[in-house]
Amino acid sequence: MNMLRDLSDDEDFLELVNIVMHPRQPKVYRERTNEFNKWSDEEFRNRFRLSKPVVEYVTDEIADEISSESNRNHALSASEMVLLTLRFLACGCFLQTTGDMMGVDKSTASRTINKVTRAIARLATNIIKMPSTAEEIDETKYK
């Protein structure tokens, strides 16, 4: 406490309080790998349940809707967002686990999954085609 009494200036006191009470934690930016290059086609499909061309197609369709306006704070790219969401849906694991696998925090994983699933759901009417004739239904059952 003698140190606090010796401070002659309010600014010095406030600086000391900020240092002692609220030390700044350095921002941690985790390394993200390129999942398209990291895995073979078969391994990629096993992990994300879709082939690389299909993931690229879906990403292209929703990229404008989900992309960040800037790259501030190492924002996720549209393809990283789609892959994070697909990984979560494919393995059904916790947000923390999915975030760790993709190099993001749990809260970022949650916001990303919400944003991407909503964007994909809006595509459903254009992409998902239900069989309408008896022949198509039988063929679908057979497959």
Tell me briefly what this model is:
The termini are far apart. This protein has 143 residues and is an all-alpha fold. The chain has 9 helices and no strands.
Characterise this structure.
There is one protein chain. The chain has 143 residues and is mainly alpha-helical. It has a domain at 35-128. It is built from nine helices and no strands. Helix 6 (78-91) packs across helix 7. It is elongated, with a radius of gyration of 24 Å. The mean pLDDT is 84.
- In total, how many beta strands? 0
Dominant shape:
elongated
Class by alpha and beta content: mainly alpha
Enumerate the spans where pLDDT stays under 50 for 5 or more consecutive residues.
none
Note the beta-strand portion: under 5%
Rg is: 24 Å
Put simply, the count of helices is 9
Report, as a whole number of angstroms, the end-to-end distance.
Answer: 78 Å
**Helical proportion?**
55-70%
The H-and-E topology, N to C, reads as: HHHHHHHHH
Largest sheet: none
Mean pLDDT: 84
